[in-house]
Amino acid sequence: MKNIIADRAALIDSSGIRKVFALAARLKDPVNFSIGQPDFDVPEPIKQAAIDAIRHGFNKYSQTAGDEQLIEKIAQKVTAEIGWKNPAVLVASGVSGGLLLTFLALINPGDEVIIPDPYFVIYKHVINMLGGKCVYIDTYPDFSLHPEKIQAAVTKKTKLIIVNSPCNPTGMVYSADQLKAVAQIARKNDIVVLSDDIYDIFSYDGPAETIAKHYEKTILLKGFSKTYAMTGWRMAYAAVHESLKPILEQMIKIQQYTFVCAPAPFQKAAEQALDFNVTSYVEQYRKKRDLLYEGLKDKFEIPKPSGAFYAFVKAPGPAATPFVEKAIKNNLLIIPGCVFSERDTHFRISYATTDEKIRQGIDILCSLA
Fold first, then answer.
1. Which of 49, 58, 213, 240 is most buried, judging by how many CB atoms fall within 10 Å of its CB?
2. Domain residue spans in the chain?
3. Regarding the domain delimited by 60-273, which CATH topology (the fold level of the hierarchy) does it fall under?
């Protein structure tokens, strides 16, 4: 029988994160440092807003770009935080949905996309699937942004620079000076920047800066999934300065034929979420960060993460995958760094779990080290 599977499907692997997530379901009470979702539930006022929306009939399609009231509220927020006077907004089905729409709207075969390595897994696979070329910028060992390396990587084929801060998987938060330097490079070469700011609220050593403040040709992606524990609700938004409105219009057009719209009742809940203060949750995660870091720093090479809820840790020995396999045999689920990187030297920890599980995980890791 002839091969009926499209060639593009062979360009991507099944998610290494999801493989470990599936494995967790088969283990008895594992210490699960694998999946990146908050361990708190959706706050009650936001749940109630979703319930009320369902009961009051907000169950049909919204406009493709999103509910008008939510778009207006997001636009006001972007103006207040970024300074863009008339931002264009699209409500997306998760930041993952926003990423797909962005890449579909921008990337032609052969276009180059500059990506700091380590990186969020979706970037690589979708870009490859569209025929684009990932140009990786090595950020080891400290995982800070290196503007001089980005400048050296720019060519006539560079279509996009991706910035993710706070970063998944490293937990690094880039400084204002680093972001300004990248903005200057992008401006000089007239390159669009994609700023994936999904973890912006989880910044423990001061507010997370965004490159969108320094460069108008930025596609800003922000989500509700991590901030409000709405991972299963698939809610996010893309916002652009009015000068990039033609790009957002293309993303909206593509959404018509893919996602159609984001889930309507959860758009009403997202309005409520924008008014909810999550400071107490962020403080809890700062303490989790400190607990994990203090427990591992004497046994492992671990740059102290400043944001998100991840740590990217150097594994003992020449490769991380054998160490990860050993950890899993000891009922500890971690993700090999090669899922997020062109290297296999580190492993990712998600400390979005209970303090008790963090302590158990520290004990297992230190015993294996």
1. 240
2. 7-42+278-368, 60-273
3. Aspartate Aminotransferase; domain 2 (3.40.640)
pTM of the model: 0.93
pLDDT tens, residue by residue, 187-207: 999 999 999 999 999 999 999
Secondary structure, 3-state, the chain: CCCCCCHHHHHCCCCHHHHHHHHHCCCCCCEECCCCCCCCCCCHHHHHHHHHHHHCCCCCCCCCCCCHHHHHHHHHHHHHHHCCCCCEEEEECHHHHHHHHHHHHHCCCCCEEEEEECCCHHHHHHHHHCCCEEEEEECCCCCCCCHHHHHHHCCCCEEEEEEECCCCCCCCCCCHHHHHHHHHHHHHHCCEEEEECCCCCCECCCCCCCHHHCCCCEEEEEECCCCCCCHHHCCEEEEECHHHHHHHHHHHHHHHCCCCCCCHHHHHHHHHHCCCCCHHHHHHHHHHHHHHHHHHCCCCCCCCCCECCEEEEECCCCCCHHHHHHHHHCCEECEEHHHCCCCCCEEEEECCCCHHHHHHHHHHHHHHC
Give the mean model confidence (pLDDT) for residues 131-145.
97
